[in-house]
Automatic annotation (TrEMBL):
GO terms for molecular function: isomerase activity. It comes from the Bacteria. Residues 31-276 form the Xylose isomerase-like TIM barrel domain. InterPro entries: IolE/XylAMocC-like (IPR050312), Xyl_isomerase-like_sf (IPR036237), Xyl_isomerase-like_TIM-brl (IPR013022). Pfam families: AP_endonuc_2. Keywords: Isomerase. This is Sugar phosphate isomerase/epimerase.
Length: 301
């Protein structure tokens, strides 16, 4: 494992993959030793349904003691849900998670609109219900979610994502028109989904700049398709994302927040890395150091 120092302390890693079965302390120690300055926890390590307040606060304080800031908590509940009680529970889980994080000074949670088409049991928009009805259900839940987060001093960093209602710049505009002035509305900018949609990266970053609170580092190759088999999220630098253009636009927009790797090169992870998350985050750090050459000096500050 590399212990080489890294001057840019806003690189983070989303603690997914097999890290989700590890103790949080071991994950944090590993990422800090690899040169990361931040960690993005998921419900695997930060879940108010099975952890008390002290345990939740302990995850954040432990991370800081290990030298990592917590950039955000990824909650990512599917808000296109036909079961009203289940939908209410998903909104409440998001708010409870945000409240627990905010109590320790982490004021951002990562969310999706749904449907989460990679999850079993998702609603098939177009057959199970109309697209219009799906938007009505989601927007109502999203408003309740935002109101709940505002009440606890947190923000929802929406990640426009393939397969969900908000998946590119134009579909995200539906939420922008409704919630742009809401104090809890924010964007988690993942370039892979915008590149997949062939959106103009520099332009859309300029348009979304007032709302971008977090950035994912992830690449993409292929074409958007209904089944999700037409594209992959390869290693950083192998896909469609123009890192120079993205970094330049973020710098121009004045972004100075965290940039967190979301490793989803799953076939490579299984076949080459043999399911070892240490190798995945170490390889990602090597790639981050390589793409730093595309970063304007202002973005490093």
């Amino acid at each position: 494992m590399s212990t080489q120092g890294n001057d840019f302390k806003r690189w983070g890693f989303l603690a997914c993959l097999d890290y989700e079965s590890w103790r949080a302390e071991k994950v944090a120690e590993t990422l800090a030793a690899q040169g990361y300055g931040a960690v993005e926890w998921t419900l695997a390590h930060f879940d108010p349904r099975r952890m008390n307040e002290a345990e939740l606060a302990g995850v954040i304080s432990m991370s800081r003691n290990k030298g990592l800031e917590v950039s955000e908590i990824a909650v990512q509940q599917d808000l296109v849900c036909l079961d009203a009680d289940e939908l209410k529970a998903r909104v409440e889980l998001t708010v409870r998670t945000a409240a627990a994080a905010a109590a320790s000074g982490v004021n951002l949670v990562n969310v999706l609109t749904g449907p989460n088409r990679w999850e079993a049991g998702h609603v098939d928009v177009g057959s199970a219900l109309t697209e219009g009805r799906a938007w009505i259900i989601m927007l109502d839940a999203y408003e309740r979610l935002l109101d709940g987060l505002a009440a606890v001093g947190s923000q929802a960093a929406l990640e426009p994502c393939w397969g969900t209602l908000a998946h590119d710049f134009h579909s995200t505009g539906v939420l922008l028109r409704r919630f742009a002035n809401h104090p809890a509305f924010a964007i988690n900018f993942d370039p892979s989904h915008f590149a997949l949609a062939r959106d103009d990266m520099g332009w859309i970053i300029g348009e979304l700049a007032p709302y971008i609170r977090h950035v994912h580092i992830k690449d993409v190759a292929g074409m958007p398709g209904r089944e999700g088999r037409e594209f992959i999220f390869p290693l950083i630098g192998e896909g469609l994302v123009n890192w120079g253009s993205m970094f330049a636009a973020l710098d121009k927009a004045g972004y100075r927040g965290f940039m967190s790797v979301e490793f989803e090169a799953y076939q490579y992870y299984r076949t080459i890395l043999k399911g070892d998350p240490i190798r995945a985050s170490e390889l990602s750090m090597q790639q981050l150091r390589a793409i730093e050459e595309f970063m304007p000096e202002g973005l490093r500050k």
